[in-house]
Protein 1
Amino acid sequence: MKNKQKIAILGAGESGVGTAILAKKQGFEVFVSDFGKAKVKYKKALNDLGVEWEEGGHNEARILEADIVMKSPGIPEKAPMVQKLVEKGIPVISEIEFASKFTSAKIIGITGSNGKTTTTKWVYHILKNAGLAVGMAGNVGDSFAKQVAEENFDWYVLELSSFQLDGIIEFRPHIAVLTNITPDHLDRYDYKIENYIESKFRITRNQTEDDFFIYDADDELTLAWLGKYQIKAQKLPFSLDTKQKMGAYLEDNNIKIITPNSQFIMPKSSLALEGKHNTKNAMAASTVAQLLRIRKETIRASMENFQGVEHRLEKVLKINNVLYINDSKATNTNATYYALDSMESETVWIVGGVDKGNNYAELLPLVNEKVKAIICLGVDNAKIFEAFGNCVEVMMETQSMTEAVQMAYKLAEKGNTVLLSPACASFDLFENYEERGREFKNAVRNL
C-alpha cells in the first residue's frame, strides 16, 4: 500500500466513523462527507480523531480525488455521488470489506431476510460462554472497523445486510449463514427479487472448500439459486421438514446436528425461544458452534438461557389478561408471517409503515384464522386496506403509536393478544424500528 493513500468516507454514522478510526490508524489520509446532518457524538469523535469532515452536502472534487471510497450501507447505489465515483473507476466498498483487510481474526458472517439478528446474537452468546475472544459487529454492536482498530479478537460474528454485501470485493467469511430469503428491500433492487437474491449470495462468493455455508433447506428461493449455481464452500443445510445427511434437522422433537467430525442432539423443548423460526435460528447457531468444536454442555446451556432480541416478539405487559407483544423488527411480510403463526389467541394486529414492495397474499390465511381487528399505523395504508378489507370486521387507521395502542386497548378482550408486527419499514413516522418499538412499549406502559 503506497504511503498516505486517500480514503473518502460517505456517511458520518456508526460505520463511517468506525472506518475513519481504522483508516487513520492504518495511515490513510481520511475525509468524511455526510450529505445530511451528522449526530453530535459522531462529530465529536471525528474532531477528537483530527479528521476532516463535512455535512449538509458533498465536496465532489475532494471526494473524486480519493483512491478508495467507503459508502455507508444506507446510501443507495443510485445516489449521484456514488454514480460519479463508479464512472471514474474509483472503488466504492463497504465498511465490512475495508475492515476485513486489517484483521487476521476468523469471521462468521450471517445474513438473511429474517432471523439474522437473533442468529448473530445467539452465536455470539455461545462463543462468549465458551470463553472465546469474540467480537460482534455489522448491523449490531459497535462498528466492525472500530473494533478491528481497537480490539484484538480471534473471532468476529457479523450480521450482514444485503446493502453491506453489495460493497464487498474480497471479503470471505470462514463460516457463512443464510437464514432465509423472502422479498425485502425490493425498492433498492429495481423491484427484482433475483437482484436481491444475488446480493444475499455474495456472502459465499469468495469462500473456498475450507469454508462452510449454512442455509435453510426448506427455503424455496435459496434452493432454487443453489440448483443453478455452484458454490465452493462445504454445505450444511438445516431443516424442520427433511432429514439431512449433513447439517441440522428435527427428529422426534429433537434437534440433530451432524457436522464433518461430530454429532449433537438436544430436545427442541429446551430452547429459550419459541416458534418455528426460532427453532431454525437455533439450528443455524448450534451448527456454527459444532463446527468450532465448542463443548456440547456449553451449547446446550447457551440454547437454554439465551434472552432473545429486543423488538422481536418481545412480550411487553399483560393488562386485563391481554398480552401486548412488540415485534417492531418485523419490517417485511415474512417476519410478520412468523409472528402471526406463533399467536395462540385472537389477535388485534397493528400493521403498516413504508411498504418495500410487499405481497400481503401470503398473510391472508393467518389473518383469517387469527386476527380479529387490524389497526393501520402509517402515512399510506391503502395497500393494507385493499389486502385485508374483507378479512376482518374491524379495520382502523391512525398515524400515532399512542392512538394505535389506545385503539387496541378498546378492541381487545380478555384472553386476546395485541401484536405490533408492522411488515413495513418505519421511516414514515419513526427514525427506525427501534424507536417504533420503544414508543409502542411506552404507550402500553402508559395505558
Note: The radius of gyration is 22 Å.
Protein 2
Amino acid sequence: MSPFARLCDRVDRGLAAIETVIIATLAVIGIGLGTMQVVLRYVFNTGFEWNEAYFVLATVTAILMAGSRAVRDDMHVRVDVIKMIVPAATARVLDLIAHAASLALCAFYVWCGFLYVNFTRAMDTASPETGLKDWLVYSIMPSILVLFCIRYLLRIRATWLGHDVAPHGDGVA
C-alpha cells in the first residue's frame, strides 16, 4: 500500500471515529434534552427556555455529521436508475461526475458559510435563549461541510481506483 493510500485510509478511519463519537454524544444529549423538556412541560407545567434551542442544535449537528457518514458509506441520496441500465464503466464515470459536482457544491457552501460566519462575527450578536454567539452556532455548517468535502475527495479517489464502496472493515460503524 502506498504512503498516500495509507494516509487516505488513516484520514477515513480517523474521521469515522470522530464522527461516531460526535453523533452518539449529540444524539444522547438531544434525547436527554427532549425528554427533559417533555417531562418538565407536561408533568410539572414548566421548562427551560434554553432547552429547545440546545435540543435543535444537538439534533441538527448530529444529523449533519450523519450525512458525512452517509457519503463515506456510499449511502447518500441519489438516483441510481441510469446506473442500472448502463455498462459498469459508464456508471463509474457517472459516479465520478456526481461526486465531483457534489464536492463543488459542498465547497461552495463552505465558502458561503464562512462568509456568513464572518458577517455574524462582525455583527457580534448572540442568541437570547442560549447566550451563545451567533457566529459560533453558524460555524457548525461550514465546518461539517468541510468534512463532506473530505469525504467526497475520498469517494472520488475510491471510485477512480475502482472501489465500489468505501471500506467498512475498520470496526467503526
Note: Confidence is low (pLDDT under 50) at residues 166-173.
Protein 3
Amino acid sequence: MKLVVLGAGESGVGTAILGKQKGYEVFVSDKGTIAKKYKEVLLNNDISFEEGNHTGSKIFDADVVMKSPGIPDKASLVVALNEKKIPVISEIEFASKYTEGLIVGITGSNGKTTTTMLVNHILKKGNINVGMGGNIGESFAQQVAENSFDVHVLELSSFQLDGIVNFAPHIAILTNITPDHLDRYEYQFENYINSKFRITENQTENDFLIYDYDDEVISNWLKNNKVKATLLPFSLETELEQGVYLKNNNIIIKYKTEEKIMNKSTLVLKGKHNTKNAMAAAMAASLLKVRKDTIRESLEDFEGAEHRLEAVLKINGVQYINDSKATNVNATYYALESMKAPTVWIVGGVDKGNDYLDLMPLVREKVKAIICLGVDNQKIVQTFYNVVDLIVETAGAEEAVKVAYKVAEKGDAVLLSPACASFDLFENYEDRGNQFKKAVREL
C-alpha cells in the first residue's frame, strides 16, 4: 500500500511516521521548503520526500493521500486526485484507525484551543493517561505511533474535519459557530456550518455531543438535522433538563445525577466565553469519570493559552495584553467584552471577509484609539473613523507598540486583538504575538 503525504508540516510528518510504522510505502511531497526540524525527522526515519514541487508520477500511484489542512480542496492537485478516485483524507482520519484510545474531539470557531487545554489539564489531574494534539501541540498521528494513550484530546479545525470518512470521537465538543474562513467555503456560511458538524456525523448513540445551547446557529442546525449522539448542551441563560447550566452562579452538571461543581466566580479564566469553555470541559471530564473536586481544582488553577488574552506587562500604569490568537471578529468581540479599562486597540492583518460592525457597540464603549497593524487597513478605518477620535496606521509590531505607548495613559489597557490572519506581516499568529511581546518588553 502506498501512502502519499501532501505537506511536510506537523500533521504531514506525523502521518508519515505512523504510515511507515504500519507498513505503508510512504512518500512526502511539499510544494514549499520543508522546515529543518521536519526534514531531519524524515531523514532519520528513512522516509522519501520531495520539496519545492509536486511530482505527479510519484503522487498519482498512491492508494491513499493524506493532505495537510492548509491545502485547499480546490487546489489543482487535489482536484486531479479526486477525479482519479484516489481517496484524499486528513491526518485525524488516518490516525484514528490505529488507536484504541477514546477520542475527545473539540471544534468551534472560537474557544477550541482553551477548551482543549482545559480538558487535557483536568484529565491529567484526574490521573488519566491522556495525550493532547490535533490543531495544537504534537501531531495526533505521531502520538498514536509513539504512545498508547487511553484518551486523546484533539483540537479540530474545520479543514481537518473536511477530510474525514469514518472518524468518530466518543465525546465531541462544539464551542460555537460564527463566520470564519469563509474564503475556503465559497463565502457560504452554510458550508462552514456543515463542515463543523461533521464532528458528529459518524457518532453513535453511545457517544456524546456537548454544545453551546445559547448559540443560535448550532440550535437551528440541530432543529433541522438528526444527530445520533446523546446531546449534552451547556448554557449561561437556561436551566437545562440535561447538560451544564448556571444556578445561583453555580455551575451545575446534570446527566443521570445532578452535581454542583463550583461557583463561577472562582474560575481562573474570566469572561462569559471562558465560563462556557469551562462548562464544556467539565462535562467532558465528568463523562470520563473524573471526580468533581478534581474538576473544580483544575478550573481554579489552569494557566491559559499563550497569545490568548495574555497579560504581558504593566508599564506606567498601562496593562499590555497579547490576544494575537484572535484571528476573527468573534474572538476579538470576546476580548473587547472582557476589557474593564479604556482600551488602545491594535487591530488588522489579512481580512477573511470580516464584518467589523458587530464590534461597534463595544468599540464605542471601550476603545479610545485604534492602531492598525496590516498592509491594507481601509475597511477598519472606514468602519470606525466616526466613532474613535484617533486611528493610526502602522507597519509592524514595534511601531504599533511605540504609538500605543504614546497614546495610552495611566489606567488604560493596550490590547493586541487583530481580528484577522497574520500572513501579511508575520509568519503566523504566534510570531505576531511574540513580536508584540518583545516590543513591549523593550519599551
Note: The first strand starts at residue 2 and ends at 6.
